[in-house]
Structure formats: structure tokens, C-alpha cells
Write a structure and sequence with these properties.
154 residues; mainly alpha; two-stranded antiparallel sheet; elongated
């Protein structure tokens, strides 16, 4: 979550430098808001992947992506309206930085953090194995594997 949010901020600052947008109190406020947006999107993804029990990892990520992309689309519509219809230069700076940040967050959350979660669930011992308390043994859990590999485990 922290790495994806740091990439969001780096992307925003890079685009601000490329387009010549100065770091003002407005754009600094936008950077702080983007930290909140980025953490929120990443928590939604992570919580859906770890908390839901039905489907494999890819199904859970797809469900979370639908929710996250709907949130991002609503945010972008509002920010574009603020940018094009707003009269204050400070609001234009804030909305510009947040538009760039929202696009950056979509790619960082769903491609970078999503792939890290898939890797984590498929590679870590906690993701593939569960301790069964009643027998005191460790068995491989096929519920967390992609559906194409479940038949090989069972």
C-alpha cells in the first residue's frame, strides 16, 4: 500500500514538473488528498483479496477492480467538472494534480499492487498453506490457488 502510494506521489510530482505547475499550497493540499485516495483504493483491493472467501485471487481482484474503477470514475467526473467550470486558479491547480494522481493511482493500484497481492498469495507460505488446528497439521489450501491449478492440488 505504501509503495503504490509513493509511486502515485512521484507520478504527480513528475507531471507537475513536466507541465510547469508550481508547488503551491493548493497543489500541496492535492498531494495530501492523493495520499488519502491512494491508501483508500489500495485498502479496498487488499481487503477484498484477503477477506473474501469465495472465488480465487483473480476473481476477488476483479470484484475489487469493479468497485475501485467505479469510485475512480466518479472522482474523475467531479474533478474534470471542477477543472473546466471552476473559476479559481487554486481549484484548477488542485483538480489538475488530483486528475493526474487518480490516473496514476488506477495504474499503480490495479497493476502494481494487484500483481504484488497475486504474487504474495501464490508464493507465501501463509497464502498457500493453512494450519488446521484440529489435526495440528499443515495442508495445502487449494482455495487460494488459481482455478487452473486447483485440479493439480486436489
Amino acid at each position: 500500500i505504501i509503495i503504490a502510494t509513493a509511486f502515485d506521489l512521484t507520478t504527480i510530482i513528475g507531471f507537475m514538473a513536466f507541465f510547469g505547475v508550481d508547488l503551491t499550497l493548493g497543489t500541496f493540499a492535492a498531494l495530501l488528498m492523493m495520499i488519502g485516495f491512494g491508501v483508500d483504493y489500495n485498502i479496498i483491493l487488499t481487503e477484498k483479496v484477503f477477506k473474501e472467501k469465495e472465488g480465487d485471487v483473480y476473481d476477488r481482484i476483479t470484484k475489487a477492480m469493479r468497485t475501485g474503477l467505479t469510485m475512480a470514475a466518479c472522482t474523475l467526473v467531479t474533478l474534470f467538472a471542477l477543472y473546466f467550470f471552476g473559476t479559481s486558479p487554486v481549484l484548477k491547480q488542485i483538480s489538475f494534480a488530483l486528475i493526474i494522481g487518480t490516473f496514476a493511482d488506477i495504474t499503480n493500484t490495479w497493476f502494481f499492487n494487484g500483481n504484488l497481492l497475486i504474487w504474495s498469495m501464490n508464493r507465501s507460505p501463509m497464502g498457500l498453506f493453512k494450519l488446521h488446528k484440529n489435526k495440528g497439521e499443515v495442508r495445502q489450501s487449494s482455495a487460494l490457488l488459481p482455478s487452473s491449478l486447483r485440479s493439480e492440488v486436489a
